Amino acid sequence: MQYHSAKSPGMMALFALFLFILAAAVVLSLLFLSGAMRFVVAAIDAILAALLIWVLCATSYTFEQDALILRCGPLREAYAYADLKTVVRTRGYGFMMALAFDRLELNPGLNPERGKIVLSPEREDDFLAELARRCPGIQIR
């Protein structure tokens, strides 16, 4: 079962701002730089814009047989259900694998090497019910 990331208006405004800046950088580099450098800079900016669009379109959380799979553009992480112990509802502004400010934090503070597991699924209640079904001992706060 797959859940896409919720997208808050504020986060979408930030992505739109970044995309506008990258588009402006492409146009300005083509207008004001000369030689091969103008195409190199424009190509780098276009690749960054494509990466942002990929993140917007392909951030999802999938329940597979043995693990919760988190995808965010080119990034992919898997967490075994047995490793998931707690879920805390939180609010944040940093970008992780969440495209909304209202988030779920799995195992807060228990995995310093990999960092926090932060996600923002659409249909959060359905997501939590499915998570509780697959992880019977999980604590949801």
Summarize the structure.
With about 140 residues, the chain is α+β, with helices and mostly antiparallel strands. It contains 3 helices and 8 strands; from the N terminus they run E-H-H-E-E-E-E-E-E-H-E.
Question: Can you lay out the helices and strands and say which pair or pack?
Answer:
Blueprint lengths: L1 E3 L4 H24 L3 H22 L1 E5 L3 E6 L2 E6 L5 E6 L10 E5 L10 E3 L4 H11 L4 E2 L1
Parallel strand pairs: 5-8
Antiparallel strand pairs: 1-2, 2-3, 3-4, 5-6, 6-7
Low-pLDDT runs: none
Roughly what is the average pLDDT, rounded to an integer? 86
How many β-strands, per DSSP? Answer: 8
Ends: how far apart? 23 Å
Return the string of H and E elements: EHHEEEEEEHE
Describe what this molecule looks like in 3D:
The chain is an alpha+beta fold and 141 residues long. It folds into 2 domains: 2-57; 80-140, no CATH class. It contains 3 helices and 8 strands, in the order E-H-H-E-E-E-E-E-E-H-E. The strands form 2 sheets. It has a 4-stranded antiparallel sheet with strand order 1-2-3-4. The protein has a 4-stranded mixed sheet with strand order 7-6-5-8, with no helix packed on it. Strand 2 and strand 3 (67-72) form a beta hairpin. The longest helix is centred in the first third of the chain and has 24 residues, at 9-32. The two termini are 23 Å apart.
